[in-house]
Write a structure and sequence with these properties.
Length: about 475
């Protein structure tokens, strides 16, 4: 399998012409449903192999595909994602996904030593090494999160191993991984400054073993601002940020540790630093929005998937170099290819429509509870997961009244209150929370549980006092 083949031979082996690939030629492109979003995956016609939208790297002049492949969620033999499960990576399926992506013009592949329980770089390297080296750009990261990897020796070993696993002699895009996460500025200095690794990576760029040097930002905005203040010194070639149509103005409402994408993108654009986009779907949440939001998006664009709005939104920003998507299934890849082959940028009116939709979502945001029950038992007898899940269910079904007028309000009010009493006994409802906070430290999703319970209780009391 490890051989360089021409694009013409490659397309012929896939059974494709050099002009187009029909939806029926892709696995899963029939009347089945997308295994993640639940949307029908009916073939919608040809996906051209020569219409990918590209952006130009201002430093190198390289043409980078606007759709980038995020390699955090490679498929497993068990049918799931290697990010979540313990199953072995399905290398044959990885190869097929990479082959199909490259056939349609995708040339940016983003991985890390930390992804897929440490096996993403290897799987990515195997798949990519079957193609000419000049047909793709590979991005990886110095993911020295653990204190045991903060030493120069350990960090250097991680860096060297990336070349081995990816089977390359140079890395096109190298990132300092997740700066601002955890311990903020102090942790950043220990990971990259005190051990001399940032200076070393700058020297590697000068030597040509790294093409472009940047960082991915998570968390403490002080670290982001500091690194941009050092742009004259380090000359960042790109920065990876979280950007989507909800996080543009509502990032802190979704997660208090995050920073609005409007600020992050604006700071990069003002300095001429290209942005690489992660989390365009907000961890998948923008492909699984509440039913009333689905109806709103589908009414505007009946033929497009809910997820496609997020990818088109991210790609519409002119200083974005590529938009990453972790595509586990062929259905994900096909849908995203339709969004970028070629990109149809959103109009100013469509952008405002999305911002208004985000405002609507934030009026009644869902709570990221996955019913793990780590918060239980509550010392005061509350059924915390049942409370949160009932609220989420009502949001998703559109049973969270927006106004106190009309028949729709009465119907939604009744559905919420009756369902609440049926699913959560009165003595176990949110009104009995005293804010002891014994639950929150055990939550893997880092939900401020007492705060959410107070919010739900206020909402319930509002409904009870306004029968309309």
């Amino acid at each position: 399998m490890k051989q360089n083949i021409s694009r013409r031979d490659f397309l012929r082996r896939l059974g494709l012409g050099t002009a187009a690939l029909t939806g029926a030629a892709l696995v899963g492109c029939d009347s089945k449903k997308n295994p993640v979003t639940g949307e029908p995956t009916v073939a919608l016609g040809e996906i051209p192999t020569d219409q990918m939208t590209y952006r130009t790297n201002p430093k190198t002049g390289e043409k980078v595909s606007l759709l980038g492949y995020g390699c955090m969620r490679w498929p497993t033999l068990g049918g799931g994602s290697a990010r979540d499960g313990a199953d072995e990576i399905d290398q044959q399926m990885v190869n097929r996904l990479v082959d199909t992506a490259i056939a349609h013009g995708v040339n940016y592949f983003d991985t890390s030593p930390a992804y897929c329980k440490g096996l993403s770089e290897r799987a990515t390297g195997i798949a990519l090494s079957r193609h000419p080296r000049d047909s793709y750009f590979v991005a990886t990261k110095l993911s020295n999160f653990a204190q045991s990897t903060w030493s120069r020796e350990a960090s250097m070993a991680m860096y060297r191993n990336s070349f081995k696993e990816l089977q390359v002699d140079h890395i096109d895009y190298m990132l300092l991984h997740a700066v601002g996460m955890g311990g903020g500025m102090d942790e950043f200095e220990k990971r990259y400054i005190d051990n001399g690794m940032l200076d070393f990576l700058v020297a590697e760029r000068e030597a040509g073993r790294i093409g472009n040097l940047g960082f991915s930002y998570h968390g403490d905005v002080k670290v982001f601002d500091y690194l941009l203040s050092q742009h004259d010194k380090y000359k960042w070639d790109f920065v990876q940020i979280q950007l989507n149509w909800v996080d543009w103005k509502h990032a802190k409402e979704v997660n208090p540790r995050n920073t609005d994408a409007e600020y992050l993108y604006g700071e990069l654009a003002s300095r001429g630093i290209p942005a690489i986009i992660m989390e365009p779907l907000l961890g998948g949440r923008l492909s699984k929005v509440p039913d009333h939001i689905v109806e709103r998006l589908k009414e505007a664009e009946p033929q497009r998937s809910v997820a496609s709005w997020a990818f088109r939104y991210a790609g519409t920003h002119p200083d974005v170099l590529t938009v990453l998507s972790g595509m586990t299934y062929m259905e994900h890849l096909e849908d995203n290819l339709r969004s970028f082959c070629p990109l149809k940028p959103l109009t100013a009116e469509e952008m405002e429509f999305l911002y208004a939709t985000a405002d609507l979502m934030m009026e009644y945001p869902t709570i990221p509870c996955n019913d793990c029950k780590y918060c239980m038992p509550c010392p005061y007898g509350l059924d915390i997961p049942a409370i949160l899940l009932h609220y989420n269910k009502c949001v998703n079904e559109g049973n969270v009244p927006e106004t106190s007028e009309g028949e729709e309000y009465r119907r939604a009010r009744q559905a919420f209150l009756v369902g609440y009493d049926r699913s959560v006994p009165k003595l176990r409802q949110a009104s009995h929370c005293i804010g002891c906070n014994q639950c929150a430290p055990h939550c893997p999703q880092q939900i401020d549980i007492p705060r959410q319970l107070r919010r739900i209780d206020r909402f319930v009391e509002k409904l009870k006092q306004n029968p309309a």
